Recover the amino acids of this structure.
């Protein structure tokens, strides 16, 4: 498959995987209770729920814009700094779901408890199928956007990555950069470990 057709397929997956979430949220804004069981806490604050759902529809709509940006020629002209916030936000929102939800399914499959509201004797929050549909869509979004970003970065900045590190010209800042990279890697271990433990339940 050529890079162009791969981008088209990945873009379609990213956009189509937004539809279940956007459809559900739009239905809830319109007053539907599909997927919301009787007694759910979501029914206690209708106005707040409508505002939150409207905002989350806009956020998932941003996935469509990001998918287009990563695959259309005009996306290569977007300033690199402008990509930082949406890519960082998408990573922060989708990565915990991409790791945590499959881990929860694995724990359930092995007979463990994930500590849901029903297990604790509380009121159900959402129907069980909603999590599968929505989180499944999020996982597809994360995988497709991640792959699209790799293709985008390779096309836009690939020439900067060619060659071995040893071939780079000597620089007075090289030792400081190496130290900074090691320190940053060590500092990332703590939150990375915490996220891994959280994802494992």
């Amino acid at each position: 498959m050529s890079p162009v057709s791969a981008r088209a397929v990945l873009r379609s997956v990213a956009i189509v995987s937004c539809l279940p979430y956007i459809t559900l949220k739009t239905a809830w804004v319109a007053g539907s209770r599909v997927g919301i069981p009787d007694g759910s806490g979501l029914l206690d604050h209708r106005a707040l729920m409508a505002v939150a759902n409207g905002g989350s529809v806009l956020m998932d709509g941003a996935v469509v814009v990001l998918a287009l940006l990563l695959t259309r020629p005009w996306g290569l002209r977007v300033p690199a700094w402008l990509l930082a916030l949406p890519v960082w936000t998408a990573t922060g929102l989708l990565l915990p779901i991409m790791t945590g939800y499959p881990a929860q399914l694995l724990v359930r499959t092995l007979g463990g408890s994930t500590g849901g509201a029903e297990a604790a004797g509380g009121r159900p929050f959402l129907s069980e199928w909603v999590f599968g549909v929505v989180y499944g869509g999020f996982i597809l979004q994360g995988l497709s956007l991640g792959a699209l970003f790799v293709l985008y970065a390779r096309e836009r900045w690939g020439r900067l990555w060619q060659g071995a590190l040893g071939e780079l010209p000597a620089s007075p800042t090289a030792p400081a950069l190496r130290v900074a990279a090691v320190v940053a890697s060590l500092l990332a271990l703590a939150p990375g470990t915490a996220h891994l433990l959280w994802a494992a339940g």
User: Anything to note?
Assistant: Helices lie at 3-16, 19-29, 46-69, 80-109, 128-157, 174-199. The mean pLDDT is 85. DSSP finds six helices and no strands in the chain.
